[in-house]
Design a protein that fits this description.
It is a single chain. The protein is mostly helical. The protein has two helices and no strands. Helix 1 packs antiparallel against helix 2. The radius of gyration is 23 Å and the shape is elongated. It starts with 16 loop residues before the first helix and ends with a helix. The mean pLDDT is 91.
């Protein structure tokens, strides 16, 4: 069985703050655009399946919502 790891609590490692901030900004962007895409897909399905827009109407709604989100968000 391996021994317990040792940690130097008197001299902790320095953090790479620019990399930390870049990763956090990437996470926020992925979360924002993922949420926007899910909402656009659901609304496209709503128009295509329930509102009688058909396949082309659903795809058109999805594309239109993504373009609007690109300029607004």
């Amino acid at each position: 069985m391996a021994g317990l790891p040792t940690y130097d609590t008197d001299h902790p490692a320095e953090m790479d703050y620019p990399e930390h901030e870049r990763t956090y900004e990437g996470f926020l962007a992925a979360t924002k655009w993922g949420s926007i895409a899910v909402i656009a897909i659901v609304l496209g399905m709503l128009v295509g399946l329930l509102a009688g827009g058909g396949f082309i109407g659903g795809i058109g709604t999805f594309i239109a919502l993504m373009v609007i989100a690109y300029f607004v968000a």
